[in-house]
Amino acid sequence: MQIPLQIIFHNMEPSDAVEANINEKAAKLQRFSDKISSCRVTVEAPHKHHYKGNIYHIGVDIVVPDAEIVVSRIPHDNHAHEDIYVAIRDAFSSARRQLEDYELKRRGKVKHHEIYEPVPGQVTE
Fold first, then answer.
1. CB neighbour class for 95 (10 Å; exposed up to 12, middle 13-18, buried from 19)
2. Where are the alpha helices (DSSP H) in the chain?
3. What is the pLDDT of residues 46-67, one digit of tens each?
4. Where are the domains of the chain?
5. CATH of 5-107, one of 2.30.30.110, 3.10.620.30, 3.30.160.100, 3.90.1150.180
6. Partners of 38 in beta bridges
7. What's the pTM value of the predicted model, to 2 decimals?
8. Any idea of the CA torsion for 85, 30, 101, 61, to the nearest 10 degrees?
């Protein structure tokens, strides 16, 4: 099944290379969950007036049954996100981790900690 993918560009021209990269990353998400019903990716260059130093913001919104996984961080000081492909990689990496956590919870494979009960005793000295 193909994931219904929507790519939105803000403050920048659409790029075929960027779209191809996003399509590749979104297709890989399907390995972690077959329950994805839609995926929306927003690519934004918030400071269009800069000649150099644009920090790209990538938002990923994945809809799965009973939940919505949203990755939307504003990278204020992360200058690695001046490269759009690094920003895309980081956003999809975060989405993958959240999707894996969702699947573990859905399957009931979460770790349950034992409740610690103190052993009764008496201090002698």
1. buried
2. 16-29, 84-107
3. 765 555 667 888 999 999 988 8
4. 5-107
5. 3.30.160.100
6. 63
7. 0.77
8. 60
